[in-house]
């Protein structure tokens, strides 16, 4: 198969079906251009409106499996990813600057976030996703660049995470110029199976431990609802709310969390936030 480029606009609805597996040439000298070598992401969906992608599988690819940019009313249904846990920076689906994206009925195992939502993600639904191995379902990372856009209206529900390093996470950089708002986040009815950090807000995100924390994150987080999270944590600190000292989190609500670590209750750690806690949830320490 040679390089294929689909360019719009299209005058009518288009359906594309691929049967079989797409493989790169076995020998480097057989590569006719640079498209096989430039592996920024494996599937890119840019500036697409009112479309559905169904039953797509990605196996052992490099970097982002799917990158979604500038799309509106766009749905993934039945997406499958299979990759080793030690494959670095291999997000399953990364979404940015898009509105009305739905990720439904997916099974994602990878070496980074199963689903990651970058800046400008609005009105996104992530539902019935099986995640693991991987780094969980993440909002961010955010705040690294000055020109970033607001993130709002995110709903994650009915998902299962197994053996992941994180569960549901919001992550923002400290000591960086981005000063956006992250608001109206809902995480509901999620099962954790030995997840190391089931619930985490991390506003001191620093993946390589080479960051300056001289200045707090400028990203404002508000209106976060976390409810009905159950099963097992891989660490005692099952809930970590580490908000920015510069712009503390507001409107964080936690309901009915039923997580245990080695059969004992988890603990909650909080900084720069005063969450509303209801039901079976350990108080902040």
Describe the structure.
The protein is 0% helix and 49% strand. It starts with 40 loop residues before the first strand and ends in a 7-residue tail after the last strand. It has a 15-stranded mixed sheet that branches. The chain has no helices and 24 strands. The protein has 285 residues and is mainly beta. The protein has one domain (49-278): Single-stranded right-handed beta-helix, Pectin lyase-like (Pectate Lyase C-like, 3 Solenoid), CATH 2.160.20.
Explain briefly what this protein structure is.
The protein is mainly β.
- What is the chain-wise order of helices and strands? EEEEEEEEEEEEEEEEEEEEEEEE
- Calculate Rg over CA atoms: 19 Å
Kindly report the average pLDDT value. 89
The number of helical runs is 0
Question: What is the name of the CATH superfamily?
Answer: Single-stranded right-handed beta-helix, Pectin lyase-like
Alpha-beta content class: mainly beta
Instruction: Indicate the CATH architecture.
Output: 3 Solenoid
Number of strands: 24
Q: Quick one: CATH class?
A: Mainly Beta
**Main sheet attributes: strand count, strand direction, barrel closure:** 15 strands, mixed
Taken as a percent bin, the fraction of beta residues is over 45%
Helical coverage, percent range: under 10%
Query: What is the count of structural domains?
Result: 1
Gross morphology:
globular
CATH fold annotation: Pectate Lyase C-like
- Note the gap between the termini: 58 Å
* Low-confidence regions: 36-41
